[in-house]
Design goal:
single chain, Uracil-DNA Glycosylase, subunit E, six-stranded mixed sheet, 12 helices, binds uracil
Length: about 260
């Protein structure tokens, strides 16, 4: 049999975990609970073959304990390599089957500020770039009001594929995509992240708090400062909220040391 190197074994184990996670497996039995199962099957065997069981010492029954599924991480060494990994992703079957292409992110790979949205819409799916539809046009104007161009910041989404009909991402979809988001942010290493809307904010910060309550203060994701504001699509539907979004942007720019008011 051909020898398998340690790193190959790690890669194979990671692939297996990814397939299990994609199939919806959230937890694996711990070695101790496996031992319990082995003990249980030995019990059944002993029922069938009493004489054999009598000859063997019984395994003690160990209290069952679950271990949480380990986080699956991407170890891509550059954004370019990561974007290729994302382009080939099939973890969410429905999204992989319905997308035109993945939408990785755009902007300055060394940006001080990342803008984080929810997921690509129809136009983004067509063009392969985040925030290029109507919401994107408004976002570009908001950035301009902050004396920023799209090329100065990095724009990305929680999901890299368009959910059909622009529905909200499901929790398994967000979880599948999380490894890419985390690695993307690790590679960009921004000082600030601005979450656009509840889906982005709640996913990144792993909270269920309403967007209205998340606004106006600094949160943290790893060592990065996070501010939250309304999604541009919401602002298009509710123009009076633009005033609040502008307050959020002024707060962010003050925190960044480049005030605009
Ligand atoms: N809405 C988002 O959240 N992201 C996009 O890229 C486009 C619209």
């Amino acid at each position: 049999m051909a020898e398998v190197s340690g790193s190959e074994l790690v890669r194979m184990a990671q692939q297996m975990l990814e397939s299990l996670q994609a199939a919806g497996v959230q937890q694996l039995p711990s070695p101790s609970s496996l031992q319990t199962s082995i003990a249980a099957s030995a019990d059944i065997e002993s029922e069938l073959q009493p004489s054999k069981a009598d000859a063997q010492p019984r395994s003690p029954v160990i209290e069952e304990e679950e271990v949480t599924m380990p986080e699956v991480k991407s170890s891509a060494s550059t954004l370019e390599i990561l974007s290729k990994e994302v382009a080939g992703c099939t973890l969410c079957q429905e999204l992989a089957e319905t997308r035109t292409q993945t939408v990785f992110g755009v902007g300055n790979p060394q940006a001080k500020l990342c803008l984080l949205g929810e997921a690509p819409g129809a136009e983004e799916d067509r063009q392969g770039e985040p925030f290029v539809g109507r919401s994107g046009q408004l976002l570009t104007k908001i950035l301009e009001a902050c004396h920023l161009r799209r090329e100065d910041v990095y724009i990305l989404n929680i999901l890299k594929c368009r959910p059909p009909g622009n529905r909200n991402p499901t929790p398994p979809e967000s979880q599948n995509c999380r490894r890419y988001l985390d690695r993307q942010l690790e590679l960009i290493n921004p000082e600030f992240i601005c979450c656009l809307g509840a889906v982005a904010a709640q996913n990144l910060l792993e909270t269920t708090e309403a967007i209205g309550r998340l606004r106006g203060r600094i949160h943290s994701y790893r060592d990065v400062k996070v501010v939250c504001t309304y999604h541009p699509a919401y602002l298009l539907r509710n123009p009076p909220a633009k005033k609040d979004a502008w307050e959020d942007m002024k707060f962010l720019m003050r925190e960044m040391g480049t005030p605009v008011d």
